[in-house]
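Long-time lurker, first post. I've been practising inverse folding by hand and with some scripts of my own, and I keep getting stuck on stretches where the structure tokens seem ambiguous. Below is the full token string for one chain I'm working on. Before anyone asks, I'm not after the true native sequence, just a reasonable design that respects the backbone. If someone could post their per-position residues I'd love to compare against what I wrote down in my notebook.
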């Protein structure tokens, strides 16, 4: 009796490990999330996490956390770049992203779907990613939140009333928009040529934008 019970439990355990095997050996799946400052990337990522259970990694949040980490050798440099709306050197951003991905997968091996928000923001970011992550992760697609500059600025100014962010002010925003137009838009266009971009009209309400987001993830996520 005991033998039958044990062999049944072992069979079940082996079977469930077998079915999980593809997930365990699968490379991390990456979804880049891009758009202007204030386009709603963070807002929509939080909703995707809630519904689909992906892990959200925001390059900006990781940089802000590193800036605030006691003893960080990069704190001051990061603050200067952020205030000026400039793009922090890629080595710093990639190492933060890589560490966050590794820690997530260490805590749960099946947790392999990552929304990487605010990256790659320029050619340097893209080359850094290809150098470091080529073959280690699969980029599934780019989710592009398309929103005009005026709406982006208004939303960030509104957010600035409570965010405490040193870059949610008009002066920083004009620089951030300029960086976005000059450096990030060409990266989106590059991915577009590869047929890897899903463009979403981000000027609609939060709920309507999420309806469009769900259509994409239900089909291709
Ligand atoms: P991003 O991560 O792209 O910088 P956020 O998600 O932080 O943008 O959104 C910026 C601000 O705009 C936040 O205050 C947020 O509540 C608001 N917001 C986000 N999406 C919308 C939307 N579709 N319509 C109106 N306001 C929005
Ligand atoms: P965000 O939170 O996405 O609005 O980003 C805020 C600021 O963080 C940007 O204006 C940049 O200074 C910096 N930053 C965010 N993402 C990146 C990135 N991928 N590479 C370098 N700097 C970044």
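-- Answer (accepted) --
I ran through it position by position. Result:
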């Amino acid at each position: 009796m005991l033998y039958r019970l044990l062999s049944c439990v072992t069979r079940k355990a082996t079977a469930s490990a077998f079915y999980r095997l593809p997930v365990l050996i699968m490379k991390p799946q990456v979804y880049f999330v891009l758009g202007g400052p204030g386009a709603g990337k963070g807002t929509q990522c939080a909703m995707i996490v809630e519904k689909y259970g992906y892990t959200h990694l925001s390059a900006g949040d990781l940089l802000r956390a590193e800036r605030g980490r006691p003893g960080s050798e990069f704190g001051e440099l990061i603050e200067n770049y952020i205030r000026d709306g400039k793009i922090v050197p890629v080595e710093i951003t990639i190492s933060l992203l890589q560490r966050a991905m590794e820690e997530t997968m260490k805590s749960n091996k099946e947790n392999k779907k990552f929304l990487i928000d605010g990256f790659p923001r320029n050619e340097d970011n893209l080359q850094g990613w290809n150098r470091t992550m080529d073959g280690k992760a699969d980029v599934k697609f780019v989710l592009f939140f398309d929103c005009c500059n005026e709406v982006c600025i208004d939303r960030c100014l509104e957010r600035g009333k409570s965010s405490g962010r040193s870059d949610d002010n008009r002066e920083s925003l004009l620089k951030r928009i300029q960086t976005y137009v000059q450096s990030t838009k060409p990266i989106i266009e590059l991915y577009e040529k590869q047929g890897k971009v899903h463009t979403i009209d981000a000027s609609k309400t939060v709920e309507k934008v999420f309806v469009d987001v769900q259509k994409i993830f239900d089909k291709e996520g």
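A couple of notes from the structure itself: The chain has nine helices and five strands. The chain has a mean pLDDT of 91. Happy to go over any region you disagree with.
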